[in-house]
Amino acid sequence: MSRFFLPGDRIGEDTVTLTGGDAAHISKSLRMRPGERITVCDMKQNEFECVICKADPDCVTAKIESRRRNDAEPPYRAVVYQALPKGDKLDTVIQKSVEIGAVRIVPFECERCVVREAKEKSARLAERRRKIAEEAAKQCGRGIIPEVLETVSFEEALMDARNGDVAFMCYEGDGTLPLGKFVSGTGRDYRFLIGPEGGFSKKEAEAAAEAGLGLCGLGKRILRTETAALFVLSCMAYVHELAEKN
User: Fold this and answer.
1) What is the mean pLDDT of residues 66-83?
2) Which residues pair with 126 in a beta bridge?
3) pLDDT value at 245 more than 60
4) Which residues of 55-81 are buried (b: 16+ CB within 10 A; e: fewer)?
5) pLDDT of amino acid 244
6) How buried is residue 166: exposed, middle or buried, by Cβ count under 10 Å (0-12/13-18/19+)?
7) What is the pLDDT of residue 184?
8) Where do runs of H (alpha helix) occur along 101-201?
């Protein structure tokens, strides 16, 4: 069933109203007609099963038939700090991170980043990336739209990450602990940094340790920057959502 996100103040007691791009998508792209069903989420993990009453390109109204609490959200928060990679790799990281369960993705620049973002483009790029997150959230049945922030500096990423219950940098150098030491099942707010294609410098690893972040190794194989975050998130999902049920 097609899924749409609306602010709670646009969801009434009995009806919902969709306008703009959502209305055009329903009436033109999906060619939905009165009597067909959609799911509307209020971005606070509440979702509503609705039947379309009117479908015009500029306005769609639907009657609420049932309400329920979305159960697709992980029982923990995972924030990904991703160093800017080359090409469209960040798009993939955002899309797949949303699918696996991240609640926020924060791009950042660091010493070995090949890509640099001009400040005047940051807001526009962030908006495009938020659309990627929204589409991924719709596709995989999330109860919220995960945040995608504008690009920050390495220092800003460190200062924000240190506020998590469990905060670590994924690092290929010496002095690391295995991922299992961080993803133990006791954390509820995970925050972790992934480096660019060239990895983090020793100076950056030292800065992370000084800020209170752990240094985490991801095994004997070297993972690409666009793979590392997904590997970490998958391990979290296994520990918190899958292993308990086996």
Assistant:
1) 95
2) none
3) no
4) beeebbbbebeeeeebeeebebbbbbb
5) 58
6) buried
7) 82
8) 119-140, 154-161
